[in-house]
Specification:
The protein is built from 14 helices and twelve strands. It has helices at residues 47-54, 77-95, 100-153, 156-175, 199-210, 215-228, 245-257, 275-292, 303-309, 327-332, 337-344, 351-356, 364-367, 390-403, and strands at 7-18, 21-32, 36-40, 62-67, 70-74, 182-185, 263-267, 295-300, 312-317, 320-326, 376-381, 384-388.
Length: 404
């Protein structure tokens, strides 16, 4: 992990609901620049939905997502519910008072809440819609500043070529979107590749959408990406069905990194592959991470894979973040019962160990009593967060103190 503590991605109270299904419910975490952040949990816990929400494949229900300090997604449901609750509380309080002055005071408090919520809803809708436009303006300004200085110093022989280059860069800057600096590697390598497109067309599509028109530049960039992921130039003219699963996933990786992203969301990129191929793809991602300076959000359900690859790990269960800490700390001092359950399910190539291994079954209703004291994600040790209530918080702190 990089020593740079700059926060690249910040997810704040993210909620993603589909009708009554709370796929992601009040999840918050940060990803530092240069690190690999692992997101683990069983199938259906909301890992992939979190990744898809970050890359704006879904409009989030509530919460905020910040990338490079700019809010790229914002939901409004929490503000709508706040207004609804405030109106209900106001109606109840007004019924129980006959004092006109108190009624006026309550009405003033209600109006202030409604005004603030409407203001926040307006800001959220603006940020959701215009974050890419605002970023494009910044890119256009940067290109103008750069080329105005170059043009002022250019000789007459250089001027025509430099003006053409300036015009081309300006056109591409106007088409630039902030979200394209986040790319996703999808779980199923064959379903995520268009069977009617050649590998060259698949990998270069992002460049063309961004405004690149020079065919020679596009082809050279495609060949460079193919070689970077362990394929060869001749593969560019082939179709996805002509490749193995591991090769298809390499094509997916090439499609992502050709856009020169700062953040890659790898959504279970090895779960559909054989074990030997899994190691190759993970090693490839690890090499690219260091050579290109990538930040990776690595989504998986296999903790043994995530341990090898991740700097920090967040554990999700039924749409909630239940534990978050460094990879070493999670394996050394797992605190939440669900994390212990996941760790107990990791097999080892040791028949004696496997014969005696006891799996821990997690039952949320049996493990916790949250009927009165509700849980929240709390920092029980520096950098170690666990979902717990007051009683569990003290128990976890005592447990860590005893181990020290």
């Amino acid at each position: 992990m990089s020593n740079n503590q700059e926060t690249l991605l910040k997810v704040e109270n993210l909620c993603q609901y589909f009708g009554f299904n709370r796929a992601v419910d009040d999840v918050s975490f940060e990803v530092k620049k240069g690190e690999v952040f692992g997101l683990v949990g069983e199938s259906g816990c909301g890992k992939t939905t979190t990744g898809r929400s970050i890359i704006k494949l879904y409009n989030i229900t509530s919460g905020s997502i910040y990338f490079k300090g700019i809010r790229i997604s914002a939901g409004i449901r929490s503000y709508q519910e706040q207004m609804k609750t405030a109106k209900a509380e106001y109606a109840e309080k007004v019924k129980n008072t006959a004092d006109p002055a108190e009624k006026a005071l309550l009405k003033g408090e209600l109006d202030a809440i409604i005004t603030n919520c409407k203001k926040e809803i307006k800001r959220a809708r603006f940020d959701q819609k215009n974050c890419d436009k605002e970023f494009s303006k910044q890119m256009v300004l940067a290109v103008k500043t750069k080329y105005q200085a170059l043009l002022s110093r250019a000789s007459e022989t250089e001027l025509a070529a430099l003006k053409a280059e300036y015009k081309d860069e300006l056109r591409k800057a106007r088409k630039t979107k902030l979200v394209t600096q986040i790319q996703m590697i999808f779980q199923d390598p064959i379903a995520s590749l268009d069977p009617r497109m050649t590998v060259r067309e698949i990998i270069s599509e992002g460049l063309i959408i961004r405004g690149e028109r020079n065919k020679k530049v596009i082809d050279e960039k495609v060949y460079e990406m193919l070689e970077l992921v362990g394929l060869v130039r001749e593969h560019a003219s082939r179709y996805p069905h002509e490749f193995s699963g591991g090769q298809r996933q390499r094509i997916g990786v090439a499609r992502a990194i050709i856009m020169n992203p700062e953040l890659i969301i790898a959504d279970e990129p090895v779960s559909a592959l054989d074990v030997s191929i899994q190691a190759q793809v993970i090693n490839l991602l690890n090499d690219l991470r260091h050579s290109l300076g990538l930040t990776i959000l690595f989504i998986a359900h296999d903790l043994s894979v995530v341990k090898y690859f991740s700097d920090r790990i967040g554990v999700m269960y039924y749409g909630k973040m239940v534990e978050l800490t460094t990879s070493d700390e999670l394996f050394k001092n797992p605190l939440h019962p669900y994390t212990k359950s996941l760790l107990s399910a990791i097999p080892l190539p040791d028949p004696i160990y496997e014969k005696n291994r006891k799996r821990i079954v997690y039952n949320r209703l049996a493990e916790h009593d949250y009927s009165v004291n509700k849980p929240s994600l709390r920092e029980v040790a520096p950098g170690h967060f666990v979902e717990c209530n007051d009683e569990e918080f003290e128990k976890y702190k005592a447990l860590l103190s005893a181990q020290d």
